Amino acid sequence: MNPRTKNLILAFATALFIHPASAKSPNFILIYADDLGYADTSVQMMDSDPSTKHAFIKTPGIERLAE
């Protein structure tokens, strides 16, 4: 991992801990994967475009998070 990526992750993590959480703060999940494209999960990303979901690759964990 190059130093720029490490610094970016460190800055993002630090910002999460410094900023006080509000009562209704949203949840964010950062998925860091190599060679994962926009339509490479089994979750349809856009309701109007069925090609934004992969027919062969199955990602049940991401499907559960998307529900």
Structural class determined from secondary elements: mainly alpha
Terminal CA distance: 32 Å
Rg from alpha-carbon coordinates: 16 Å
The total count of strands amounts to 0
Shape: flat
Mean pLDDT: 81
> How are helices and strands ordered from N to C?
HH
Residue share in helices? Answer: 25-40%
pLDDT < 50 runs, ≥5 residues: none
Supply the number of helical segments. Answer: 2
Q: What kind of sheet is the major sheet?
A: none
Which range does the strand content fall in?
under 5%
Give me a quick take on this structure.
This protein is mainly α and 67 residues long.
Explain this structure:
It is a single chain. The chain has a domain at 37-67. 34% of the residues lie in helices and 0% in strands. The protein contains two helices and no strands. It has helices spanning 3-18, 60-66. The longest helix has 16 residues, at 3-18. It is flat, with a radius of gyration of 16 Å. The termini are far apart. The model has no long low-confidence stretch (mean pLDDT 81).
Helix-strand layout with pairing:
Layout: H1 3-18, H2 60-66
What labels describe this entry?
single chain; 67 residues; mainly alpha; 0% strand; flat
